[in-house]
Design brief:
Blueprint lengths: L3 H9 L4 H13 L5 E5 L6 E2 L3 H13 L5 E6 L9 H11 L9 H7 L9 H4 L7 H12 L15 E4 L5 E3 H12 L6 E8 L4 H19 L2 E8 L6 E2 L17 E2 L7 H5 L5 E5 L10 H32 L20 H4 L3 H18 L9 H12 L3 E8 L7 E6 L5 E6 L9 H8 L3 E2 L3 E5 L20 E7 L2 E7 L12 E6 L22
Parallel strand pairs: 2-18, 3-6, 3-10, 6-7, 11-18
Antiparallel strand pairs: 1-12, 4-5, 8-9, 10-15, 11-14, 11-15, 12-13, 16-17
Length: 526
Amino acid sequence: MFTKEDIAQIEGRGSSVQTVKEQIERFKQGFPWLKIVAPATPQRGIEVLDDEAADKAVKYYESAKIDGKCKFVPASGAASRMFKDLFSGLDALEAGKTLAPDSPAARFVSQICSFAFYTPELFGEKPCECPEYQKSVLGKTLRAEGLGYGSKPKGVLKFHKYADGEVRTAFAEHLVEAQNYMRNEDGSANLVVTISPEHRQLFEDAYAAVKDEYEARYGVKYNISFTYQDKATDTIAVDVENRPFRTETDSLLFRPAGHGALIYNLNNIEEEVVSIKNIDNVANERLLPETAKWKKVLLGRALELRDQIFGYLKELDIATNATVGKVVNADLPGLVGMGSDDIYQSDAVQNLCNDIEAFLDSQLCIKMPVAADCKKRVEALRAKLNRPIRVCGMVKNQGEPGGGPFVIAEKDGSTSLQVLESVQINMEDEQARGALASATHFNPVDLVCCLHDYKGESFDLLKYVDQDAGFISSKSYQGRELKALELPGLWNGAMSNWNTLFVEVPLATFNPVKVVLDLLRPAHQN
């Protein structure tokens, strides 16, 4: 299947022939559909907090002991999809066509003065609807002779302009957010930003432009780390017959495997608590108080959950030794003098198991299968508890794109909360279609994670990925059809085996910029 040149190419990327063969087999076999039990709703699966509970969570976060905090911002790739409609409009104008007045490109030109990147020197002072002016504005926005936004990453684009004349990029707004709700006790704010190597200088320049000013204004010390999606995580492409896709030079074609590859970057973070939010989900600073409040709510609920889980794990350790089943502490009544074979059957241990199962069911929608014996019951519960934690903000459905919250059936017979993309849902299954239709919320990629175990050690996050939760998509290369393999998504399959809690957050905290006209929404204007 592979030539010497192929093997050198594979190994030169940090991958292996075995890994590539496994990926090709995935194309042939496909991925199993996840079995949906029900959508997660406020009735079961999504917490809806009143003001008192929200304030309690904020206070819990502000007083909790935390072994370091970090803001993780996925920011790889160019903003080409953000300007897709503008490219189409420019192509039409250059072909001698005219723009429909209600087309995205025409609307963009007519409101050019409302964008933060507008300057009269570049675009002129009086917008008009004539094709030559439209062509000029679109060209100066997209191409290198102007702003070059068509090939730059979203993070360095100017998103917001303030009344005092300050203009901020999306990356700058993340810096402002970080100092507000992710500040460490020593006054520092840590950020890990995933970027493409070719964009590093753009991000370095954007950071240098505001670093000193923001550190002085907000009294913060920033620690910034720019990381790349590892080329070794790219997956091979295949043709329609599942044969390795070859380029015009007969080389194998590898493609980035989606945001699921970022689990490797996340796994390198040493801090205990991590906040995750996409680069384009920021708003004008006037909305920061509400954004920060609800981020602190998620942080507080994550830490409350962490401490509950740690408490149960420590109680299990008090009752039994995690490795050989011997009594290590007789503080629990009825365990004194009991042998290792009997300890798991004791009322004290089984009552503790009952409490843990009730907690998992009520808080995390985890229903445990019946264990073969008492010892296996303890072992299964310990394994369920001792996992990374994620708390995901959920907003009410408003027709925006995003993964949906569901309760699914796991391979081990338990149930769990998961975020599923539409491509992971079997639309030929009536129950799955019904669950999707009755879903009330979606995930805006607003997560808080706890990455240390109850002994203070970092989890190896790669052990908690569901490799069966990837998917296959149809793409093209120079007009030729191909199939691409996406790794389990970062907030989907890459976190499948985490302990998960969903919390409703206000829609006002979700302000993504998927297309350039989104910058005209109130959240991005003064």
